[in-house]
Amino acid sequence: MNRRELDPDSSPQAAFGARLRSSREERGWTQEDLAARTEYSSTHISSVETGRKMPTLRFSRSADLAFDTGGMFERKWREIRHGSLLEGFPEYVGYEGRAVEIRLYEIGIIPGLLQTPAYARVLVDSAVQRGAITSEQAAERVSFLAGRQEALDRPRPPMLFVVMDESCVRRRVGGREVMDAQLESLVEFAARPNTVLQVAPFEIGERRPFDLPVNLLTLPDRSLIAYAESQAQGHLDRETPSVLPMLTAYHQLQAEALSQAESVAVISQARKGTP
What we know:
- This protein is an alpha/beta fold.
- The protein has twelve helices and six strands.
- Strand 5 (224-229) and strand 6 (234-237) form a beta hairpin.
- The longest helix has 17 residues, at 135-151.
């Protein structure tokens, strides 16, 4: 029998197929065995394993039940569905929607939860032009972001602490009109009763404790979750011994950053195009 080998690093769809195949073979199951456990045909199983057919949510959940993988295949499906989101991010968003406190730090661009639709659209359109994602994935990313933002607009919203590197404010995205509206939105965000917005100025230099964006969540039971990512990888951490030092570092960052009043002044100056 010919066996088509896939590079799991070539795409989220290929990674899904490779993981499905390896999970099946680890148990000594044939494609017919898995088909019987998922109520799909062996031909369908083969097509998903070789990347010829896109997995569906129903199929992914059936695979999780068959392998008892605790939602792993559903998370991988969501990575495909939402424009190749980094590993761990779909799971993080699930926790984000019920957190009582959210702490964010961002470098270079406005944090997603604070982006206007026009600002977010410019970013995804740029990714399409570079060939990094498809137009369909771009539309889904914008829709996914809107869903995250709506999830936080609930009767008892979380406290939202945001520290932005000064580069987020100074870097113009989408031209003057888009950027002006985005900066105006930040000023309005800072005026909400459940938010704290601070700018970390360039002058803090080596005292900046983070070199990468950071997301920290406090859940209703007061447990902590951290999510951090690079250009190519995301990591979700629920281990208290490793998350607590990140929380300490975040407090240190807040101490070095400008006050909210000073931060709003910097944003207002940026709107006027003054240094």
